[in-house]
Amino acid sequence: MRIFNTEAKGNVLVVRIDGIKSEWEQDILLVSDQHHDSPLCERKIEQKHLEEAVDKKAIILFGGDTFDAMQGKKDPRSSYDNLDPELKSDKYFDAVVNFNAKFYAPYASNICMIGKGNHETSVQKHHNISLIDNLVYRLNQETQSNIAVGGYGGWIKFLFTMDTTKRYSMNLKYFHGSGGDAPVTRGVIQTARQAVYLPDADIVWNGHNHSEYALPIQRERISQQGDLYQDVQWHVRTPGYKNEYRDGSEGWAVESGMPPKPIGCVWLKMYRDGNKIRVKAIQDVR
pTM here? Predict the structure, then answer.
């Protein structure tokens, strides 16, 4: 049974959580860049985090590149060696949806949204196939879930009801990410830019470059009544589960001079503090 309800309004997914008592806490698992169908995916670590989310009754959000999907016939990156036996099929894209749906089905009731990354939009552009729409349809049909299809970027608006009458809201902006590796800044410089044009976000979530951070930015605010106060805007980047570096002997990442990347996720812990809901970000990487 879900502890939340969702409603899509354009590119905003509204998540409602009611009946919040004084000691309430809610965990949210942010994952992106799983590349689950790649043999380079650290599936045991991914599975551990998903099982932990189920145990915690956490809300799970996928931020894009759930699929690797690089082994199509016309993809110059394709390699027969990079195919699991289940994916060696003339119906490759059907097989890759089946492969991922089988893995994520046990966690479907906790999954709130699956967004799109550049690997999925590339397949959609070149093959007129939306892997995410197909995956979400399969999961919803087979598990009677209500997973939402997210965009490459979008918003999640959390609406809370405390003690039946008190209301509070929190906004999460997600964007899969853009650009290259950013080996020096790891993309952290983007937080300064995003903080400027995303003033209404309480949480800003990126993925894509397989780096990781959880950075709070303290802000001075003024209410409509003219009262001054401070709040925190959290900026997080999730690294994913694809270990392209491995032992450093060969492969695209090694030949490109890329460093090893963290493997893992970021947890958000929302909790009640008086008549407000607060949040903190917790990194979980290997």
Answer: 0.94
